[in-house]
Amino acid sequence: MDPFVPKGEPRPGPEQTCGYKTQGMTCACGRAATWHVMWDSLLDNSLTCDEHMELIQRSWVYDDRHPVVADCAMPGALWSYPDKRCEFPQPDDLGAYLAVLATCREPLLGH
Ligand SMILES: [Zn+2]
Ligand SMILES: [Zn+2]
């Protein structure tokens, strides 16, 4: 089985709902997101609910995750690995952040 999640279309922020989409469906899960998942070094990331976080942990590898905070998926907010959250960076502290920008994606369930 492919350990990497199949990625869907980019989602424009700042909606904080679960973007999980069963393959072939047009609507995402849509429940309030509780986890923010970073998939890989391409900085593709997804917002997901508790139920789909469990599925993700059972099914795919990911790079990092943190509980959703107010700044997640907001334009201009960046992923902070050391702080385990998204936040708006201080100008003198940019090295600690990785841009997530418009890379928020829907994970897709195969079959
Ligand atoms: Zn969900
Ligand atoms: Zn986040």
What can you tell me about this protein's structure?
- There is one protein chain.
- The protein has 111 residues and is mainly beta.
- The protein is 9% helix and 29% strand.
- The chain has one domain.
- The chain has a 3-stranded mixed β-sheet with strand order 1-9-2, with no helix packed on it. A 3-stranded antiparallel β-sheet has the order 4-3-5.
- A hairpin with a 6-residue loop joins strand 3 and strand 4.
- The protein binds zinc ion (ZN) (2 copies).
- One zinc ion binds next to loops.
Topology:
Elements: E1 7-10, E2 21-22, E3 35-38, E4 45-48, H1 50-59, E5 64-67, E6 78-80, E7 85-87, E8 97-99, E9 105-109
Parallel strand pairs: 2-9
Antiparallel strand pairs: 1-9, 3-4, 3-5, 6-7, 6-8
Bound molecules: zinc ion (2 copies).
One zinc ion binds next to loops.
